[in-house]
């Protein structure tokens, strides 16, 4: 699937981003990630009041979609937004 054409996001990529953002937990995760450089799963548990397994499952969807990236920090896994347009979308939504 072509993600960008002529410097613009394709309809397919935009659809995927919006689909990933349509879940309240994933939207909350993305909001928290845009407020920080990166965040570890344990911190998301506290910030969003969700279980670690739930946060991890949603982060896996976001990572598999290329919206976030991860890195290991000892035993912790930390995430950051890798799709810069997410920040613009959340800003437009005033979230």
From TrEMBL:
InterPro entries associated with the record: ArsR-like_HTH (IPR011991), HTH_ArsR_DNA-bd_dom (IPR001845), Metal_resp_trans_reg (IPR051011), WH-like_DNA-bd_sf (IPR036388), WH_DNA-bd_sf (IPR036390)
HTH arsR-type domain residues: 6-95
Superkingdom of source: Bacteria
Protein name: ArsR family transcriptional regulator
Keywords: DNA-binding, Transcription, Transcription regulation
UniProt lineage: Bacteria, Fusobacteriati, Fusobacteriota, Fusobacteriia, Fusobacteriales
A Pfam family that the UniProt record links to this protein: HTH_5
Presence of keyword Secreted: no
SMART domains for the chain: HTH_ARSR (SM00418)
